[in-house]
Design goal:
Radius of gyration of chain A: 21 Å
Order of helices and strands of chain B: HEHEHEHHEEEHHEHEHHEE
Number of helices of chain B: 10
Order of helices and strands of chain A: EHEHEHEHHEHEHEHEHEHEEHEEHEHEH
Distance between the termini of chain A: 33 Å
Oligomer: heterodimer
Distance between the termini of chain B: 53 Å
Strand content of chain B: 15-25%
CATH class of the largest domain in chain A: Alpha Beta
CATH class of chain B: Alpha Beta
Largest sheet of chain A: 7 strands, mixed
Helix content of chain A: 40-55%
Radius of gyration of chain B: 18 Å
CATH topology of the largest domain in chain A: Rossmann fold
Number of strands of chain A: 15
Largest interface: A-B, 40 and 32 residues
Strand order of the largest sheet of chain B: 2-1-3-4-8-7-9-10
Strand content of chain A: 15-25%
CATH architecture of chain B: 3-Layer(aba) Sandwich
Chain lengths: 365, 269
């Protein structure tokens, strides 16, 4: 473990990428994530990484395609409008099964929107985003520490499943400074051999082809079935989440990323008032942690989903709840961050409506 | 020459398909330039003995299946993005030979940005650019290089400068960029043209080995099916109509512009 450092989220993420053995970064400046490119341009290059500021996000994601196809551990980062431009490339990368990391420091949209934090890209990130049936592995950090930690996890998951992985952060997580400790990590022990990569065909093997084109429908169907089987395995093995005060909770708050930090505080405040509230923080947004919702749902009276958007993840929660418990939504859009008091107020109204009694002794206070 | 290709029936073998071409039969139309260009490119790879060090990038267009025929490691790029994909490969594998193979729609319409910037960076790659002034694969629509007055399925009255603009001489544009080291315009319609093209390919790989930077070979090509001509008529039409707008020869050699270029006629409006 490294010594404790005070770092910005974007810089911690960039430093983690170097430590994770990332060999190539291709990106284009966009607020609020330009520090990733800037940090790597200085520190990454110094430590042997190929770092390119290129002409567009289109070029960046296609360079990631080429470089990942050549067997290298590579990444790009951007913010919402730039990530939209990358969707075509991500669809090709997903179909060609190339491991890579894409970081989205989500800002408020739609359109050019605002540079303030948002979670408006949940659908785009978790449901595919580009054309065709595919998924990214999506990890949602809620702290600067996780901005760094999830870089190692995302690269490893990408290699494990030969699938693009995304870190879905937001403008606040990218810009804020917190204490951070880098984990011990040796890329040599973690990066698998990539026999499929296009590194030049020796006489001893057939040529390697990286492609997403399979013109025969039977072949293309098989490619799709293979991808779906892979996503099934991810759903089975990789659901990650954090629970807070859920042992005895009757009301469950579900929130990810920055919204989950706000909700964590709101849950603490609610517990002070004796309300039986707990928090589920999904960490993998794909695969979504359905299983834990299934486990919890039968002892709940009500669920509140809090997001910095108009209600996107709430659809996954409702799918997991399967109509057994009412699911409420509270959201802020356009770069506005909800406050713990906003969430608490919502929780109190819900509690009254659901007829939930206060816990006599506010033991979690 | 592979041993299996040597005839044993008393005839002398004068030519054999290089090992760098697969056994797959070409899907190209009769008379199309692609087959010759594929063959020459792969012959050069064979003769330079760089098969194990070569990575190619196929485009979207008629040559989308180039990797079915070229027996080297290859990647299939999204439409227009071949130069970016090739950049990604080359930056990770700087000692390998990297080429992209693109048509006019891919390189000069949807991929203009990637094309120009790869050239301007002096990306150490070879770009093979097939210019037949038409979209072959999608059925003969207008290309950025379609000649004025030329009929295509989307310019049924002929390309009109008022609404569709001018034929795009992107090769001249690229030759102006300091990152471009070798820029040449070739054809493969006669044995002599084929020999010249092969020299250009060999020269480009040599430059790449010496890390000189970006090389572009445009091949002014025919499209008998898209032009609705026989192969012989198509080559004649190409000589009479394409060559005046896209004159053959070197534009830039070893980083220096070629001074005595055939004059490019002013486009009449």
């Amino acid at each position: 473990m490294s010594e404790a450092l005070l770092m910005k989220g974007n810089e911690a993420l960039a430093e983690a990428a170097i430590r994770a053995g990332c060999q190539g970064y291709f990106g284009y400046p966009i607020t609020p994530q330009s520090e990733v490119l800037e940090y790597l341009a200085e520190e990454g290059r110094k430590r042997g990484m190929v770092v390119m500021q290129v002409e567009s996000e289109l070029a960046a994601i296609n360079m990631v395609y080429g470089a990942a196809g050549a067997g290298a551990r590579v990444m790009t980062s951007s913010s919402s409008p730039g990530i939209s431009l990358m969707q075509e490339g991500l669809s090709y990368i997903a179909c060609a099964e190339l491991p890579c990391l894409v970081v989205n420091v989500n800002r408020g949209g739609p359109g050019l929107g605002t540079i303030q934090p948002s979670q408006g890209d949940y659908f785009q990130s978790t449901k595919g985003g580009g054309h065709g049936d595919y998924h990214l592995i999506v990890l949602a950090p809620a702290s600067v520490q996780e901005m760094a930690d999830f870089v190692f996890d995302a690269f490893d998951l990408a290699d494990k499943y030969r699938n693009p992985a995304m870190i879905l952060a937001d403008g606040a997580l990218g810009q804020m400074m917190e204490k951070i400790v880098f984990r011990d990590y040796n890329p040599k022990d973690s990066i698998p051999a990539k026999e499929w990569a296009t590194t030049g065909k020796p006489k001893s093997r057939e040529r390697n082809i990286v492609t997403s084109l399979h013109i025969q429908p039977e072949k293309m169907e098989q490619i799709n079935l293979n991808l779906q089987e892979k996503y099934r395995r991810m759903r089975e093995r990789e659901q990650r989440y954090q629970l807070v005060n859920t042992e005895d909770c009757e009301i469950l708050v579900v929130a990810y990323g920055l919204a989950a930090r706000v909700c964590h505080r709101a849950v603490e405040l609610a517990r002070h008032q004796g309300l039986p509230v707990g928090l589920l923080r999904p960490i993998t947004l794909f695969p979504y942690p359905y299983n834990i919702v299934h486990e919890l749902r039968d002892r709940l009276r009500r669920v509140l989903v809090v997001e910095m958007n108009s209600g996107q993840m709430v659809e996954d929660v409702r799918l997991a709840i399967e109509g057994r418990v009412p699911v409420d939504f509270y959201g802020k859009m356009g770069g506005i961050i909800p406050s713990p008091d906003d969430v608490l107020e919502k929780l109190i109204t819900m509690t009254d409506r659901a007829g939930v009694k206060q816990i006599k002794e506010a033991s979690h206070a | 020459m592979p041993e299996t290709m040597v005839p044993t029936n008393g005839y002398e073998c004068v030519w054999a398909k290089p090992e760098t071409l697969t056994e797959t039969k070409l899907h190209y139309c009769p008379g199309c330039s692609h087959g010759v260009v594929h063959k020459i490119l792969m012959e050069a790879v064979q003769e330079l003995d760089i098969q194990s060090e070569t990575v190619g990038v196929a485009p979207v267009g008629c040559s989308v299946f180039a990797y079915h025929y070229m027996n080297v490691d290859m990647q299939e790029a999204a439409h227009g993005r071949a130069a970016a994909v090739a950049t990604g490969i080359k930056r990770m594998l700087p000692d390998k030979y990297v080429f992209s193979y693109q048509g006019d729609g891919d390189l000069a319409a949807i991929g203009t940005g990637e094309t120009i910037h790869a050239a301007n960076r002096g990306e150490n790659i070879l770009v093979i650019f097939i210019n037949n002034a038409i979209y072959g694969m999608t059925g003969g629509q207008m290309a950025p290089t379609t000649l004025l007055g030329m009929k295509t399925s989307t310019t049924p009255e002929g390309r009109n400068v008022e609404t569709q603009g001018f034929p795009f001489r992107i090769t001249e544009l690229i030759a102006m960029l300091p990152g471009a080291h070798y820029v040449t315009r070739q054809a493969v319609h006669t044995p002599n043209a084929v020999r010249q093209f092969k020299k250009a390919v060999t020269k480009s790989f040599q430059y790449q080995k010496e890390k000189k930077g970006y090389c572009l070979i445009e091949i002014v090509s025919n499209c008998p099916s898209g032009w609705k001509l026989t192969p012989v008529e198509a080559n004649k039409w190409m000589e009479e109509n394409m060559f005046p707008v896209y004159p053959l020869g070197d534009l830039k050699v070893d980083g220096k512009p070629v001074e005595k270029r055939p004059a490019v006629p002013a486009t009449k409006k």
